[in-house]
Amino acid sequence: MRAEVDPLPPVVRAPSVATAARSALADVATLTRRELLVWLRNPSLIFFTFVQPVMFVLLFRYVFGGAIPVRVPGGYVDFLMPGIIAQTSAFASFGTAIALARQVQLGMIDRLRAMPIARSAVLLGRLAADTARLVVTVVLLLGVGYAVGFRFHNGIVPALLLVVLAVAFGAVICTVSGFVGLRIRDEEAVGSFGLVWLFPLTFVSSAFVPVTSMPGWLQAFAKNQPVTIVIDELRALALGGPLQLHAWQSALWLAGIALVFVPLAVRAYRRA
Questions:
Q1: Per-residue CA distances from 195 to 57, 71, 150, 239, 270 (Å)
Q2: Against a cut of 0.70, is the pTM above it?
Q3: What is the DSSP letter of 14?
Q4: CA distance 33 to 4
């Protein structure tokens, strides 16, 4: 009798690069939609996303504005709004850190890892959702600013570039907060740590007062830290002024922060 020969196992071909890329993009889109639905279905998140920056605008516009002299077209409100926009973009990253820390605590990261999805989709989906929230927040702030007297003095294209730069700044800060959330892994500790490093950077800057009004020993730090440089570029886009210097400085700072903290966030995610 002829011995039976087991058939060869079917050859499993690896998906092409294009197929893998399409699959990864679909995973990112799915997780982005999930994060946005969580946000939209949580009224407290929406409340704090929008109410805090509006409150800052109204407080500084009507409480402190008359006591802070500035020499810009339109007065203090036009000086204030680029700073509020940059501060809000930075503070929005609190949500990234807290959400990732919560997902680690609840075991969600482990569950997502066990699913047949692209490894990069979790972080990219979170970043894409936060970027979408930033766009909505910046547009809302501009609407509130116009209601209290803010005006652009430099045309429509610089106004659009202001929105792009503010969103890019917030997205880059989200990479820092993503690393913090995945590394610390505790919601309360993450929130406290965010206040420790973000508050000094935003308040010791040109956001609310001219840097020249600060003590001399503080001016050197305030002038050269990334928040001030981004705010000065936003202000130049809104009011007119020299764009080139702060533009390339802002680009270098944002690129440098991303190059440092994106790999750190990925590494923290793998170890979470």
A1: 19, 31, 28, 30, 26
A2: yes
A3: P
A4: 53
